[in-house]
Amino acid sequence: MILGITGGTGCGKTTLLELLRDRGALVLDCDEVYHGLLKTDRQLLAAIAARFPGTVENGVLLRKKLGTIVFSDENALRELNKITHAAVKSEVLHRLEAAPELAAIDAIGLFEGDLAGLCDVTVAVTAPAEARIRRLMARDGISEDYARSRIAAQHGEDWFRERCTYTLRNDGTREDFREKCLAFLREIGIINK
Q: What are the residue ranges of helices labelled H in the chain?
């Protein structure tokens, strides 16, 4: 079974992914895949540098500089996604060639990156905006304004909910959400009742 897990940044997808990893799932974090490709795929980095001059120095992507551009310009973000999604999907397909019994694809761009079609089940993880902002600030060491701009550049909850098979709302404590995730995994047969 392949689960596609999506939702905005700071929603708490990691909790569900950790539970899946604990059960032996191959977890493919598309952000992690992307960052790995930035170190190994010279063509990807060159394409980003060509489209967004000044965001790559000495072969290294200046993430905050690129983020400042794309999180305030919808067209720029769309263009960046066109560049990155194909490279990420190719790498995900390569890793799935091992045919794991259970896998999870964690991707905010699950649908835009053409990854949802690989999945048996898709799950939207959602959370209140203010909680997401606090989590982002703490996790990434960024300002409130930058956290808000990142969230504003992403699809809203309804967009994810309308496209996914299931929705898990993370609106309580971490332990509450963990219990919701466990109940969900029982419901779809990953954990025996």
A: 13-22, 30-40, 42-51, 63-70, 74-96, 129-140, 144-152, 157-163, 174-187
Side-chain-side CA neighbours of 26 within 13 Å: the count stands at 15
Write out the chain's pLDDT in tens, 193 residues: 999 999 988 888 999 999 999 999 999 999 899 999 999 999 999 999 999 999 999 889 998 899 889 888 889 988 999 999 999 999 999 999 988 899 999 998 899 989 999 999 999 999 998 999 998 999 989 999 989 888 888 888 999 999 999 999 999 889 999 999 999 999 999 988 6
Q: Looking at the whole model, is its pTM more than 0.90? A: no
Evaluate whether 86 touches 34 at the Cβ level (below 8 Å).
no
